[in-house]
Specification:
Helices cover 8% and strands 29% of the residues. It has 13 helices and 70 strands.
Length: 1227
Amino acid sequence: MNTQLKVLTRSILAGLVCAAGTGQAQITVSDDFTQATSKAIWTTFGTACLTAGTTANNSGGQIPKCTASTSQAGGYGDTIHPGGYMAAGVLDPVGNGALRLTNADGNDAGAIVYNSVFPSTSGIAVTFTSVSYDGNSGSGGGNYPISDGADGMSFFLVDSSVTPTNYGSYGGSLGYSCAQGKNPGNGATGGYIGLGIDEYGNFLNSGDNTATGVLSYNTSTGTYNTSSSSQFQGNRIGVRGIGMVNWLQLNANFPSYYPSSLSSSQQVTAVQNTCGSGTVWNYSGSTIGGVSSGNNMNCAVMVNSLPVTWTQLHAANSTYYPSSLTTAQQTSAVSNTCKTGTMWNYSSVTGTSTGAVNTGILVSSKSGSLGYVASSQTLYDYAPIQNTVGGVTSYASLAMPPTLVTTNDNLIANESAGARGNASLYTYNLKITSGGLLSLSYYKNGASGNTTNVLTNWPIFSTNGPLPANFKFGFAASTGGSNNVHEILCFQAAPADDSDTSVGINVIQTGQVKTNTQVYLAYYHSNDWWGQLTSQNLVYNSTTNTVTVATTANWDASCVLTGDTSGTTLPGGNCKATGSTSDTAEGPTARTIMTWDATAGSGIPFEWSGSSGHINTTQQGWLNAGDSYGQTRLAYLRGDRTNEVSPDGSTGYFRDRIGVLGDIVDSSPTWVGAPLAPYPSGAGAASTTWQDLLYPSTTMPENANTYGAYQTANASRLNVVFAGANDGMMHGFESGSFNSSGGFVSTNNDGKEVIAYMPNAVVQSIHNSSNSALDYSSPNYVHNYYVDATPGTGDLYYNNSWHTWLVGGLGAGGNAIYALDLTNPSNYSEANASSVVIGEWNSSTSTLGTNLGQTFGTPVIKRFHSNTSAGSWGFVFGNGYNAPSHNGGVFIGLVSSGGSVSFVFLPLPASANGTASSPNGVFSAYAADYDGDGIADFIYAGDMQGNVWRWDVTSQSPSTWASTTPVQIFAAGSGQPISTQVQVLSVPNPGGPRRIMVDFGTGSQIPSTSGTSYATGQQALYGIWDGNVSAWNALTTTSAHQYDAYPAAHTVVTGDLQSQSVTGTGVDSSGIPYRKMSNKGVCWADLTSCSAPALNNQYGWIYQFAAPSSSTVAGEQVVFNPVVEEGAFVVNTYVPALSQTCTVYAPSGWTMAINPATGGAFQTSFFVNSSNIIESQVQLGATGSPSFVVANSVAYLVSQTLANGATVNATQPPAGAGYRLNWTELR
C-alpha cells in the first residue's frame, strides 16, 4: 500500500547527464585508436595502421600496427612511418597513438571499415576526432596566405547490403566519391553519406571527381564565386550524398550496359567515364551509329541520348558546332559533349579545344536532330548534399573563416607541426535522425563550447533517398601530389533519436520532490534542443519499508504541449514517459502566455493583436526584424507548427521542432501550491503572532489578516509546477491539489500548462536577425539561453492581504528580474495579465543600472525590519555575473503597501571590484534570521573572487543598509569562486552560546552560447565560524539569541582551519562506491579543549577536493546549492565531463553528508548500508540540491542520477548537530 510521504526539503533535484528513457535497446559503437589494439572489429585497406599497435596484421579484425615500410600498388602508398607522438620510425607508447590513414607521402591512401552492421531504425549520431600534420607544404585552393594540406580525409556511411564493402578513390575523392581521372576510379560501394575534410580543395570540385560540385568561396571579396569552373576550395568541409559509381554496382544495376565480359582496363574506363558525366554509359559491345561502344570520342556510348555524332551536333546547333572545325576539333567537341552531357560552344576555338566553353545546357534540354530520350535508369553519383528553403538552395559545405586562417594552427592541416602534439585536434559531430534530418558540427582542441555548426537539421530524404536498413561506416584518407599525415584518434556511433551527438546520452538537469507524493524531473536534449518535465509518484512499500520512484510518469509537459497523435511530433510518435499514444497538443491559441510592456509598465498578453491586449509596436518590431514573419513567429513561439520547415524542405520557414517545450537546462522545477511557510499563524499567543524582537514597539500589519487564515483559505489551491525553459518562457503546469484535510486530489494532475511568462528582455532577444545560430525560430538555430534560472517563490504581505509571488531571473539569458503574483490560479488568464505580472526590471531601471548582471541565483522572499513607505517585505538576490560595472553586491526589492517595487543595492567594497577581464559578482544570497522572529537580520553571500560577505540589515532604514560596509567573513581566494548559496547555521558550543557557522563550497558553472565553463584548479568545502557578533549581542535583549563571539578581533585565513580528508575508499554491499572521511575535532580559539592549549587556534574547517592534473583543468567542485538537513551539511559535488584526446568521461559527482560544525564524519554512517561502513560520501551520480522525504520515521534522500533517473536512498541522520538560521525553507 502507499503511504503519504512527509516532505522535509522542497529543494531541487537537479540532474547532470542521464540517458532519457527510451523503451528500446541502444547500440553504441566506440573505439579508442590511441591504444595498442582496437576495440571494434575492422577491415583495413591500404596504409591504415595503429601507431601504438601490437598486432602484425588484420588478423581477427584488428587494425595492424604501423611498420617500417610497406608498399601498395596502384597509387596506394609509399612508406609507412610509425609514430607521431615519438620520433619517426618508433612506435608510439600505448595511450598516445592514433589510427594512421596516410603518411606524409604522395599518392597514399588508407581506410578502415567497420565489420558489423549498425541499424538505422533510430538514425545515427557519430563523433570522431582527427588530426592532420607534417607534409610537404603543398598549396591548395581558397586564396589562403599560407600552404595547406593534401588531400584530406573522410568519414562515410554505406549501405551494408551492398557487398563487399569497399571505399572510394584517392586524391580529391578522399576515399568516398568516384574519380574520372584516376585508377582505380571507383567510388564507395553502397555510399550514402560521405563527410569530406578537404585540406587541398578537390572534394567538392567536379573538375577532379564526379560531375557535381560546389562553388568556391572567394576569400578576397568575401563572396562565393559564380563561375561553374570555380569549385577548387581548400580548407573546406563538405558532405556528398548517395553514390553507386563503382564497377561492382554498375555491373549489378546495369548489367546490359556494363557487362561482366569487359576487360579490367575497360572496366576502369567505364567507371571513369560514368563518373565524369554523371550518366549511364553503354558498354554492351554493340555498334551504334557506326561507332564502337568502347570509343570515348563519340556519344554513341551514352545511354541518356540517342547516338550523337559530329553530324548530329552540327545539325542541332551550328553556332556551337560550326562546320569550320578541323577533324581533331570535331572529335574534341563530340568527346566533351559526351563526357559532360552538356552542350559545348566551339565557335571561338583555337587549337584542338582551347577556347571551347561548356555552356552548361544539358543535352536533354535540346530537341530536334539530337533526338534526346531520357533513360529510365537512375544513377546516383555522390552529389553534394543540398537543402532548399524558401526557394534558396544551399549546399552542405563550409570553408574555414578566411579571417582566421593566418597561421598554420588555424588550418585543418598544420604542416608546420612535425608531431601530433603540436597540431590541432578537430572533433566532428555528424547526425542523421530517423526522419532524415542531417546535422554537422565541429570544434577544435576539445573546446566543445566553441562548436561551429556546418548545418543543422537539413532534410535529405528527398534528394538522398531513405536510410538503408543497416549501415556500415568507415574512415579513409588520401594524398596526391602533395601530402600530409592523416590520423583518427577516437570514434563513437550511437542512435541519433535518443542520443546526444557527442557522447550518446541526453542530459537530465533538474528535479524536485513536492506535494508529498510526487517528484518532478526536468530534462534537456541537445539533439534539437527540446525539453521534458515529468511528474512521477514516490511510492512507499510497507513490507520492505522502502521508497521508490514510479517508472511511469503521471504526465510529461512536453507531450502536453506537443501532442503525440500524429506519429511525428515526438520520437517514436508517442509519449514515452507516460506510454500514452493519444495526447492532443494544448492548442497554441488556448495557452495563457503573458509578457511585459516596458513602455506602459504593465503586464500584457503575449498576442499579436486582440481586445484583451497585445504586444506593443516595439516588440512587434523585434519579432519582425529582417523579415515580415513577426506575427507567424509569435504564433510559432506559442506552439504553432504550421510554418515549420517540412521534411522535404519544400514548405515552411521556421525550425522544425521535435517538441514544443524547450530545453530546461539550469532552471529547477519549482512547486507552488497551498501556503506552507512557517510563519506565525496568528492564533493569539505571542509565539504565533508577528513581532519584531529588535523593535518590539513596531506595529505589525500582518497580524490584522493572519497567515493562518490565508493558509486555510488556500489549502486546496491548485498545485502548479514552474520551470524556465530556453524556448523563452517560464512555464507553469498544473499538478493536482490537496483537500482541506491534506489529502491529495488527482483531479487536474495532468501537466496542462495553466500559465506562461515570456520576459520582455526575451521578446527582444529570441529573434536574432543578425545571427541565425542564436535565432530560436531559424532552421539554422544552434542554441541560446533565454529563461535559464530557478525562480524563488514565497508568501508576503502588503496592501492588507497575503500574496504568493514568484520571482526569477534569466541566468545566462540576460540581465533582468521579474515577478508574478500567483495568489489565485483562477486569475491566470491573459485578460488579467496586468494584475498577474507585477513587473520586470533590467539594467535600464535606475536603481539597478550597471550593477545588474546575468541573474543566476534564486531570489529569496523575506520580511525586513524596514518601516518606511518602501515596504517591509521584499526579495533579495545576487546582482549576478558580468554586470556592466563588473562589480558585485546584492539587491533587495522592497514591496510597498500598494505592491510597487523599489530596489536597494548593497554593494561590495571597492577592494572587491572586478574588471572587464575578471568580473566579480554575487550569484546567490542567504537571508539569516538570528532571533527567530521571521525577519531578516543579516544577508550572507559569496562572490566570484572567493570572498564571503555579511551585510547588516537590522536597521529600520533601508538607506542605512546600503551605506554600511559589509563584513568580510572569509577569503577563499580568487581561484575558488563561490557561485552557490552559503548555508548559515548555529551549532552547539559546550559551556557557551551557540556558534554561528557559514558552510559553503567553491566552484562555478557559467553557461554561455559558446559553452559552459567551470572553475579550474583545486576547490574545497569550508565551514567558517562567524564570531563577528559583538554588535548583535549588544543589540538583542534575549541571551538565547546571542552567539559565541571571537575572543579578539580576527581575520580568518585558511591556516586557521582544521583540515579534514578522505581516509578510505571502497564499494559497499549495494555496489555503491563510497569515501570515508576523517573526523578530527576543531580546536576552537575560544576554548581549551585540545590537549595543548596553544593548539586552540582554529576558526573552522576545510575539506579540499582532489587536485586536478593542472590549475587549468576543472576538477571536483560545488555548483549546486548545499542544504543543512537532518543534522548534516549535505551537498552534491560535481566533476565536469573530462574530454581527453580520445576518452570522454561523463560528468560525475559525490553526495556528501558531513558534520556542519567540524566538516568531518559522524560517529555513525549517514548513509544506510549493510556493510557497517561509516560512509560520509557516496558516488550516487546525484545532481542538484539534495532533497529528503520521511516515511515511517525513516528519512530518505531523493536524488536524480546519471544512471537511473531518480533514486531513493535511506539515511540514518545524527541528532542535533545544528539548525539553519532562517524560517523560509529554500525552494
